[in-house]
Amino acid sequence: MMMKSQSSGTTMTELGQFLKNPPEGFTVEACGSRYRIRSGEDSLVFIDNLHAGDRGVVFQNSLGRKFKMHSLWEYTSMRKSLLSKKIYVLVSLCDQTILETNKKRVVTSRVLQEYILSIDGGNPMIKWQLEKGLDWTLSSVAGESYRVEIDLKEILEGLTAEGFIAKDLMKYNLTWENASFTLKYYSDALFDFPHWLGLSKRSFKLKPVNT
Length: 211
What we know:
The protein is of the alpha/beta class. It has five helices and 14 strands. It has helices at residues 15-20, 72-82, 124-141, 153-161, 193-196, and strands at 4-6, 10-14, 26-31, 34-39, 43-46, 50-52, 55-59, 66-69, 86-100, 105-120, 146-151, 174-177, 180-185, 201-205.
């Protein structure tokens, strides 16, 4: 079943449909036990290697879900790309089970469907949110190494509320996982204590853009 949705700067496509009918700028090649996917220069892919059924899936131009930068030039280049290109991330829609006992609370999740979420970094409202989040991150770390997670869960929850999820999945206790990507910047500071102590982790949320 095709499950593709659009909502003001975002698109969401089931992984299987993406492989069968890739969007403009992508090519999919089946090579033995794996799919090899190439993307164009106007795409920014943050997807790790994965499996679809019995085949591996490799996005050959992917930066990985966590991208490392080691210089101001790399940061500036990444920032420019984020604010102008379409961003692609693999996200998982899961059925969450919560078991309460006298001693602890156990939460487990089962993947129901995987989607490729695309966000248009050049969309004026999305671009504004990204600029604001990146600027806030830089102003809060004072030159040391840092990592910043860009959280996409509110966008996904907005798509769910708008009815873009197949009706047969709505009976489950739905939650989104793998709903983010991360940038890591490594400075050349001699004594990078905040980073060493885990104090330079940041996160900001992208919100749905109203049409």
